[in-house]
Design goal:
Strand content: over 45%
Number of helices: 0
Shape: globular
Length: 130
């Protein structure tokens, strides 16, 4: 899995996922370092996934609403650094062999005007899990 930024903004961001081969692994370890370019009282994310060129998923989620938020990034101020590691556990999607393009967009408003992050992930699944 690799990523690039999908716009011209200069982000201070790093994401790492281990193990490299995630098939049949019950726990994935993730590391995240990010310095947001605006305050994060609201954070709405949009995931767009394409599988071998066909649109496979569109998912929109409010991670931070400004009230009783559970994520560490919620409430961060512009220029603060978040550096964290966490486990990703639970049910796993079995991804068919192929190429996946994933766009992750993050907005610090409810109207999708103030983009705070935009990432273009490439994931290549080399063998079918079935």
């Amino acid at each position: 899995m690799s990523y690039t930024f999908c716009d011209s903004a200069a982000y201070s961001f790093m994401f790492n996922l281990t193990p490299c081969s995630i098939m049949n692994q019950p726990i994935w370890k993730a590391s995240l370092t990010w310095i947001p370019t605006s305050d994060i009282s609201i954070l709405n994310i949009i995931f767009k996934v394409w599988y071998d060129g066909a649109k496979a998923l569109y998912w929109k989620e409010a991670l931070c609403s400004g009230v009783d938020d559970e994520y560490a990034v919620c409430g961060m101020l512009k220029g603060e650094t978040i550096a964290t590691t966490f486990d990703i556990k639970g049910a796993r999607t079995k991804f068919p062999k192929g190429n996946y393009n994933i766009i992750l967009e993050g907005f610090s408003d409810d109207f999708e005007n103030n983009m705070v992050i935009c990432l273009n992930f490439t994931m290549i699944v080399k063998q079918d899990p079935f």
